[in-house]
Amino acid sequence: MNESAGVRFRRLNRPQVITEEVPERRHKGSSTYSGKVFQVTLLSLGGFLLFPLLVIILILESPIQPEAFSLKDPPSMKGCWEPNLKLREAQRLFEDQLIGPESITNIGDVLFTGTADGKILKLIGQKIVTVARLGSPPCGSSDDEPTCGRPLGMRVGPNGTLFVADAYLGLFEVNPTTGAATKLVSGGQVVAGRKLSFINDLTVTRDGKKVYFTDSSSRWQRRNYMYLIMEATADGRVLEYDMETRELSVIMENLRFPNGIQLLPDEESVLVAETTMARIRRVHVAGLNKGGMDTFIDNLPGFPDNIRPSSNGGYWVAMSAVRPNPGFSMLDFLAQRPWIKKFIFKLFSQDVLMRFVPRYSLVAELYDGGACTRSFHDPNGLVAAYVSEVHEHDGNLYIGSFRSPYIAKLDLHKV
Q1: CA distances (Å), origin 107, targets 63, 98, 176
Q2: CA 104: distance to chain centroid?
């Protein structure tokens, strides 16, 4: 056998290695085809389901027309703002016996508050007594609020009467003994071209001749407060009611959710919580600067509600939601993204959205110039949730809430 014949023989008789490569190549085409069919089917099904939803979203109108605005980067929660658990030292009073005690005041050792069912209550020891009902039943739902009434800010006047701001019905002076109520200002009336839609808090001069109050919005009512926060329209005002002349006048306007209000000792200016902007403004209501405004404290670590005096000469401020730093603040993120807000409110109701708002209760004592001296925290609102006001009396803080079924009491000697 010559050399070329030998080569041909070896090639023909070379041993073969059996592998799975050939079968794989055989089935590869059919597998790829099946995968593509599955993907197309899945995408078609997804498009079939999503298309009607997208059409509905595009057709539906958002209930809000939000404005873009800017907030400064939240302050670092250090120093006075350092998180703690001191507010969890509070005890709950009258739990499940009342709902939403927004504002609290006292005459002697007797406490008074207004609740979500439209009542003004007297709290004597462990006993609850109904003093008055400003509206009429039924009560209990958001649809009922405009006729049931919703008492918010409450103060004691120089004659021992209660001054009450009802979000819908107006300003009242109430006899705490007989329950007789005199309407001072009607809610819903038009003042200087705008409707009083959301009367919120009030403060009274020492002689009882002037009442200053906030109207949080001319567009939104209290039951739509989430719309007001998210829309961020600057249609809130501070007004003055003269008890002698019965005149009603606008002191300041174009505020974003003016909320709590507190007269300063000289009674020439008031502090106003501008909730949406996370700051407290000083509005001059008398004297040479009447009609002017400046900032008492800017860029708070939370969104302020009511303001009340402290026994040390400062002011207690309640905040039911914070702007964590470090952390993520949804409201800060949405401030300059109105299109996202519109989209969200097309899909979800206020009640659903409230469940996604992180609960964090913060109470702080502030002084002139906005200096913070101490703060009490309850992360996640485990003991005191949805705080709205802090009323100091006899060494204790009585903490109101706009929706919790209790009043929280914090002994200052323990913290």
Answers
A1: 43, 20, 9
A2: 19
